[in-house]
Each structure stands twice: as structure tokens, then as C-alpha cells.
Amino acid sequence: MDHAASATQHDDRLSVTPSRWRDLVALTKPGIIGGNLIATLGGYFLAAHGTFDWMTFAAVMVGIALVIASGCACNNVIDRDIDALMARTRHRPLVKGRISITQALSASALLGVAGIVCLALGTNGLTVALAVTGWVVYVGLYSLYMKRHSEYGTLVGSLSGAMPPVVGYCAVTGQFDSGALMLLVIFCLWQMPHSYAIAIFRYADYRRASIPVLPVVHGIKRAKHHILGYIIAFIPASLALVLASQAGAGYLLVALAMGGYWLYLALCGFRLGDDVRWAKKVFGVSILTITALSLVMVLEAMVPMWA
């Protein structure tokens, strides 16, 4: 082989490597990891009450990020057939064949083991058990079966989606107390209108892939009623942290303002004609709401540390 051919192959290898890394990163759904890390922050600082341990904090943040990345990579493998049918997901690496199933499963296993080891070394047994439970629910119950076969898949999936803040909380306390239970309920209730809003503005995708989400099975009008009902339940659940003296006045104001506006948007859905545009607003406000609540948990806990 001459030097020119060798150089060309070397250049090809160099050009492929960054792309392969981008595909591997995409496999882990970084946006989902980022959102869940904000929720984990909230749970950690809610339990910390002004104290801070760098080792525990680093272990829970890195550990849960790796476990979530593992679950997302595994989900990509399971969903590759329906991803090919949906406009939003048809360009994912597995669908396009840029990453093999073996590579994706190997990455998932490596990330999962690393995450569990990180949590085991830096936190406690309960935190590890909760993280593993969240993974099993997301991959085993939701992705493998419920998502494809039942309209209640969203409800089951909400349990895994609510686990990160509970993991952050229990990494500090080492016990599943009333605070952990309230976080679990708050985030489970939040997941439902958030997910139903996605199902409405991605209605065509879900229908094409035969995914039995509520709007597809029972219609958008019924989904709107469920969105309204879950937001009505979410508001008092979020305020329970204040009543239990787990959160303060700043959290109360943010919870009332964001929850109230989210409720207002839900009510608007019954008189607006553009369901897609309305659902996107409900989805956007859901992200803002849970992010604001999580960050105010952090800020309120950090005030005593700065004092």
C-alpha cells in the first residue's frame, strides 16, 4: 500500500471517530440526562438543609447520570423499530445503522455498571436500590412491554421519571421518609400532563407507530381532561413540602405562580382550536415549572450555607 492510500485511510478514520462519539452520546439522550440532573439537584439540596458533602454530591450526580444514560441506551435498542416510523426519531443512530445493537448494549451495560459502582461507593444501599429500581421500571416494565401494549404505560413510566430527585434526597438521608415520598408523588404527578402534552403534539407519530398513549386510544379531548386533573392534583402535592416545613417561602411563591399558570393553560385548552400549539405550550410550561421548583429547592438550601 502506498503512502497516499495510507494517508487517505488515516484521514477517513479521523473523520469517522468524532461522528461515532456523537452517535454514542446521542444514544444516551443528553437532554433527558440534563433535565433529570436538575431534579436530582433539587432532591439532594432539599434533604441537605444547608449542609454539603462533596463526595456524596459528586457520587450521586455522576452515578445517577450514568444509570440514566444506560437506561436511555437500552431504550434506543428496544425502540429501534418504532423509532423508524416516527418523524422525531427516525434519524437516531440505531435506526440509521450507524451503531450496532451489540455496541449499544455494550455501552448500556458499561454505563450502568459504572453508575451503580459510583453510587455504591459514594452514597448508600437505599440510593443504589432506588436507582436500580428506576432503571428496571424504565427498561423492563415501560420500554419492553407497557409502552407498546397499554395506555397505562405513561403511568408506569412516570415512576422511573420521578426517581432521580428521590435518589438525590435519599443519598443524603439514607432513608425513605415523608420528604422522599412527597418528592416521588410530586414528580409522578408532574410526569403525566407533561407526557400527555407530548403525545398530543406528536399525535401523528404515536399513531403511526401504534403506541397506545391516551390521546391516540381515547382522543385528545379526554387527554385534555386528564391533563387538567393531574395539574389540579400536582399543585397541592407540590405545596405539601411547605406544609411539612421541607421548603420555604420562596418555594411557596414559585409553586403557586408556576402551578397556577400551568393550570390556566390547561383550562385554555378547552376553548382554543389549535391543539398542537396549545400542547406545546403546556409541555414548555411543564419544563419551566419543574425546573423552577428544583432550582428554588437548591437556592433555599444554599442560603444557610452562605450565611
TrEMBL record:
EC id: 2.5.1.141
A Pfam family reported for this protein in Swiss-Prot or TrEMBL: UbiA
GO (cellular component) term, any one: plasma membrane
A single GO molecular function term of this UniProt record: protoheme IX farnesyltransferase activity
Gene Ontology annotations of biological process type: heme O biosynthetic process
Location in the cell: Cell membrane
Keyword Membrane: yes
The family this protein is said to belong to: Belongs to the UbiA prenyltransferase family. Protoheme IX farnesyltransferase subfamily.
Protein purpose: Converts heme B (protoheme IX) to heme O by substitution of the vinyl group on carbon 2 of heme B porphyrin ring with a hydroxyethyl farnesyl side group.
Miscellaneous section: Carbon 2 of the heme B porphyrin ring is defined according to the Fischer nomenclature.
Annotated protein name in UniProt: Protoheme IX farnesyltransferase
Organism: Vreelandella alkaliphila
Protein encoded by which gene: cyoE
